[in-house]
Amino acid sequence: MTTMSDSKPGKDTDKQTYSVEVFAPRNPMDRRPFTWSKHLLVSEAAAQAAVVFGIQGGQPTLAKEGKALDRTKQLVAVGVRDHDVLEIVDAAGGV
Amino acid sequence: MALLARGDVLAYLNDDGEIPGALRWAEFHGLEHAWHQETLTFTVRLIGGSETIEFERYLVRGTFEDYRVMPPVWRFFDPRTARDIGPAAYPLAGPFPSGSVLHSSGVICAPWNRLAYKDRGGPHEDWNAANWQTTAPQYTTAKTIPEMLARLRAEVLISARRLAALPAAA
């Protein structure tokens, strides 16, 4: 049975900031909290996180469930949600 | 001829952010993996998409002779036999946002893979392996083994299929 409190229509969409945890590949248990506007670009969020983890150079992005997020889009647009756990992944081109 | 003594290579590899970090990374993601110090190889199994079956299995192995003077050798192998079977072992490049490292010829084309360099059969005669961390700053940058693995997993997860069908099992 769905109650009013369960459904909470618009709860996530109304929220303007997301509190997430980010980790670097070298230690997934070392997670750092970040609170970002949901409209922040992925590239800007990833750059902030990369500095915290001492990752230099390249084009860091965030990965959700292992899949790299498009750096040119806003967090909300690539499916980031409140309480997500995100991994820093390099996103610069290859080949 | 090796550029670094084995003890020096192991000292780099045993740094907390390298092989210990790679082990933590693989365990966190629930990926089958193995580290063989005797052969300086780290192997991990990855899962990618498929157009014909539920998913494709991949086996990728890094070898670390002369690390960190030289980049690792990263290569995909037959996931059934662990043999080198060329392009059929590799995933097709998926829609990675800034361009994939998975070359259509069956090589991981990144400055952090020794096999991407011309002198090892790769396409890049414009890159210098001795400066692998800075030789191509406009391309993918991964300075530690866990960072390389995270990039490879992100690529394999969005691959739609293998480059070619696996050969018939012997």
Report on the structure:
The complex is a heterodimer of chains A (95) and B (170). Chain A is 20% helix and 27% strand. Chain A has a single domain, classed as Roll (Ubiquitin-like (UB roll)), CATH 3.10.20. Chain A has a 5-stranded mixed sheet with strand order 2-1-5-3-4. Chain A has helices at 4-7, 11-14, 42-52; strands spanning 17-23, 32-37, 60-64, 67-68, 85-90. The radius of gyration of chain A is 14 Å and the shape is globular. By secondary structure, chain B is of the alpha+beta class. Chain B has a single domain, classed as Ubiquitin Conjugating Enzyme, CATH 3.10.110. In chain B, 18% of the residues lie in helices and 17% in strands. Chain B has helices at residues 6-13, 19-28, 145-157, and strands at residues 33-36, 41-48, 56-63, 73-77, 102-103, 107-108. In chain B, the strands form 2 sheets. Chain B has a 4-stranded antiparallel sheet with strand order 1-2-3-4. In chain B, strands 5-6 form a two-stranded antiparallel ribbon. In chain B, a hairpin with a 7-residue loop joins strand 2 (41-48) and strand 3. In chain B, helix 2 packs parallel to helix 3. Chain B is globular and about 45 Å long. Chains A and B meet through strand 4 and strand 5 of A and helix 2, strand 5 and helix 3 of B.
